[in-house]
Amino acid sequence: MTFESLGLSPALLEVLSTIKYSEPYPVQSEVIPAVMNRKDILGIAPTGSGKTAGYVLPLLMNLQEKKLSRNRHVQVLVLVPTRELAIQVNDVFKLFGAAVPGKIKILAVYGGVAVNPQMMALQGVNILIATPGRLLELEASNAVKLSGIETLVLDEADKMLNLGFQEEMNRIFELLPKKRQNLLFSATLSDDVNNINRVLLHDPVVVKIENEKDNIDLIEQTAYLVPDERKGPLLRYLIKQHSMKQVLVFASSVYSSEKVAEKLRNSGVDATAMHSKLSQKARTDAMERFRSGKLRVMVATDLISRGIDIKFLPYVINYELPRSPKDYIHRIGRTGRAESPGEAISFVSPVDEHHFRVIQKKMGKWVTLIDSKNIEFRGF
């Protein structure tokens, strides 16, 4: 299948050619025609599967055919859980939107930065990408009207519904018109996603892509049995002994990510924590340094990691295991992309041994478990 066969405009096809997109990803082949036909979508698609362009392209096509609003009544609303993801989605919309006739105005709004410039920029916006909290703040100030929304996109719906956004989401749903197109994308099909699917979606086209799991064979997995008090020395030992660069370390909390990054820095390893408490500038700067290879180690929480999308990331280390086997697969799926091998290392404390066995069973792959007591890393 080609992008031409999906009915995209010559202007969009030219941009796709310029960025060397030769053929659509599986999720794009299914989502693009369905969105252009104004269908609701339930898309189960992990990060890196091409879903963002999958909904961006047809939404731009649909807006070309309409008389665009030039007031504060937005027509397309994309809700995302993090600032990083809002910026990424905004970049994709602007990349393709610049080629579309009709001057479609696109804006991303999120917390952590001054609200007044966002208020002023909302005049005439057609496509709004927003985090829930900042959207509600802007709506309460009459800076934006949601009564004219024609299409609602929930990107990373699993994270928004699982990590404390429920009350904000319910308030937003009450402000939206009942008749609209709904596009719901999630990395996993949790009970929360299933429940909201029943409420929001009308006869949806269901698209399920599981390419992260398919790519597990490209990932070399190792695990170390290690007590909590020896995890720090083991981490420093592995990074230094194996001269690791561009290492993404997962921690379970903001506090833990800061503590791990601080101890790495104290031992001479360039590292920074990445979490929701940082300012937007600090997060953007750290991400650019990490993506370019100038930052050796990034220690991230699960929520913030949704904005980390690097094609050739060589190392992922689970300093602390996630609660869900699906989150484990999502974490290690950050490496082993674009048909390039990657390495995933997990630290398993004695109390987590049973949980790690459950993860392996769900994953359908067994991982070698090395007892760290036989490794001498004194001094690390």
Which SSEs are present, and which pair or pack?
Blueprint: H1 10-18, H2 26-36, E1 41-44, H3 51-64, E2 76-79, H4 83-97, E3 106-109, H5 116-121, E4 127-130, H6 132-140, E5 151-154, H7 157-162, H8 166-175, E6 181-186, H9 191-200, E7 205-208, H10 211-214, E8 219-225, H11 231-241, E9 247-250, H12 254-266, E10 271-274, H13 280-292, E11 297-300, E12 315-318, H14 325-332, E13 342-348, H15 353-363, E14 368-371
Helix pairs in contact: 2-3, 3-4, 6-8, 14-15
Protein architecture, described:
The chain is of the alpha/beta class. The chain has two domains: 4-209, 3-Layer(aba) Sandwich (Rossmann fold), CATH 3.40.50; 213-374, Rossmann fold, CATH 3.40.50.300. Helix content is 39%, strand content 17%. The protein has helices spanning 10-18, 26-36, 51-64, 83-97, 116-121, 132-140, 157-162, 166-175, 191-200, 211-214, 231-241, 254-266, 280-292, 325-332, 353-363, and strands spanning 41-44, 76-79, 106-109, 127-130, 151-154, 181-186, 205-208, 219-225, 247-250, 271-274, 297-300, 315-318, 342-348, 368-371. The strands form two sheets. Strands 3-4-2-5-6-1-7 form a seven-stranded parallel sheet, sandwiched between helices. Helix 2 packs parallel to helix 3 (51-64), helix 6 crosses helix 8 (166-175) and helix 14 (325-332) crosses helix 15 (353-363).
Order of helices and strands: HHEHEHEHEHEHHEHEHEHEHEHEEHEHE
CATH C-level label of the largest domain? Alpha Beta
Low-pLDDT stretches are none
The rounded Rg comes to 22 Å
Strand-pairing-aware structural class: alpha/beta
Give the CA-based shape: globular
What share of the residues does DSSP label as strand, in percent? Answer: 15-25%
> First CA to last CA: what distance?
53 Å
CATH topology of the largest domain: Rossmann fold
How many extended strands? 14
Strand order of the largest sheet: 3-4-2-5-6-1-7
* Oligomeric form: single chain
Tally of separate helices:
15
Biggest pleated-sheet summary: 7 strands, parallel
The second-level CATH architecture of the largest domain is 3-Layer(aba) Sandwich
Relative helix content: 25-40%
**What is the typical, i.e. mean, pLDDT?**
87
List the domain count as a whole number. Answer: 2
CATH homologous superfamily grouping of the largest domain: P-loop containing nucleotide triphosphate hydrolases
